[in-house]
Amino acid sequence: MQRNLLAIRHLEREQIEELIDLGQEMKKRVLEGKALPDMSGLVMGMLFFENSTRTRVSFEQAAHYLRMKSANFGQAGSSMSKGETLKDTILTLRYERLNGLVIRHRASGAPQLATKYFGGPVLNAGDGQHEHPTQALGDAVTILERKGQIKGLRIAIVGDVLHSRVARSNAWLLSKLGAKVNFVGPRTLMPSHSGMLPGDVFFELQEGIEDADVVMCLRLQKERMNGSLVSSIGEYAKMYQVNRETLKWANPDCLVMHPGPLNRGIELDDHAADGEHSVINSQVENGVFVRMAALYWCFGGGRKKNAEPAPETPKASKAKSKTKTARAKA
Ligand code: CP
Question: Is the pTM of this model over 0.85?
Answer without folding.
Answer: yes
